[in-house]
Model the fold of this input.
Amino acid sequence: MTAAAEARPILRIEGLNAHIAGQQVVEDVSFSVPATGITALLGRNGVGKTSTIKAIIGLIDRTGAVELGGVRIEKEPTFKIIRSGVGYVPEDREVFSKLTVAENLRLAERDDAPRRQLVEELFPDLLARSAQMAGTLSGGQQQMVSLARALLNTNKILLVDEPTKGLAPKIVAEVAETLAEAAKTVPILLVEQNLHVVRQLAEGAVVLSGGRVVHTGSALEFLDDAELTQRLLGVSAETPAGERTAGEKTAREISGKGAAL
Amino acid sequence: MSTLVLLLFTGLGLGALYFLVAAGLSLIYGLMGVLNFAHGAFLTLGAFAGWEIARRTGSDDWGTFLLSLLVGAAAGAAFAAFTEFVLIRRLYQRHIEQLLITVGLSLAAVALFDGIWGTDPVFIQGPAWFKDTTEILGARVPNDRFVCIVAAVLVLLAMVFFLKNTRYGMIIRAGVENRSMVTALGIDVRKAFTLVFTIGGAAAGLGGVLASHYFGYVSPMLGGSLLIFAFIVTVIGGLGSLTGAAIAAVAVAVLQQFANFYLGGTGDFVVVLALALVLLFRPSGLLGRTS
Done:
């Protein structure tokens, strides 16, 4: 990718408003996602992060401009937006519980040559459980199915909503590692409450409050500003820059291993 | 003993008809959230189309009967596909309007059938074998019951095969569980909507031809009278569950027959009572979604 292409945002949102059951949940949100790396979409519970993600792909009623790779997509139905190159990993996984793992994955294949081998390398456990009903998997395994569905196809961007929610620390690390691998080839807009994971993975940050964007900039700089994180997130990032634990690695450090995406 | 056997097979035959209507209703509601009150009209059109085949050929042999099944199913499928494509699709996620338009369509269809075929029932003859009986454990069971049962079992097996072994079947199963997530995988779920309506209409049309032989007549009200019980079957079986619809169809029809015989003609009351009990103690139905 050229420097000029990298400088151009892959996703641009301008004046996005969204409503659920008549109530406004996203208010005049504008931000851009760079064509590389992971951008974190942060905010307290209920500020509209998930609604923003859903509004981008048209899962809820919205107005405003949404541009993917320089093409306006806000008038398109959800399935066409997805087909134009958006991988969506929803909050709470949303696997089809009465379909097998293999069926969940087959359903997600939209490319002529889906990247099955890659998914098998990244999630060997899923291969062994291909005939198992997805509803009987553990939360971590369901998250792997959800991530695998998005990674099966070639995307221009991944929208990943709270992928570590409710998972054990070991699984959180595995999910973070997978996301870091994915970010080597596809930009990611990541909604994440776990600030350790954000610190590990994200380069940029967009912070929402009351359905509006209240801060944009470097993720690390934001997390290092204890006063700002306390004010906007209600918590402070526990591990300042330079004092990471041995288990924590940045996306760049992680990207040196694992399957190539 | 012979009475029990006769009631059981009569109930199974009626249950087969309930299933053929309820299968489409259940899948349509499960996938699209549409309570399709026009579904009875698909059945009635199928029944009249089958009757027209018999009338125009002037024959009541097996070939004519099988042709009438095909034509009845095709008529029901075409009417259902038209309904979804022209009326329902424009009202996507507007459930009150969808409800109103299907109720309106059911009334308009009955009026149209009255105009074309008259308000009085028209009587139908099938193959001579239908009029015979087969003795089972001392009971002389009318043969047309077996035809209904075999047809319903074949339709159930075909639907299960389709749902389990085809991509569209997979999309429908996934859509019944979480429609918006299917869309979020890049799948145009509207095609599945049309397909489910068409399949449901075909089953109802087939059921219409079989119902005309089971009852011996066709009338514009035939679909409406079966629709009420098909709705009860759908709710008891669990909205969106094909297997649930099959189990509930048999349970409701057999219960109805036994109550009619042993409890002084209270079959309809007992069925409604069963519906109330299911709604009170297991609102998701026998095999429906729990959420």
Remarks:
- DSSP finds eleven helices and four strands in chain B.
- Residues 2-220 of chain B form one domain.
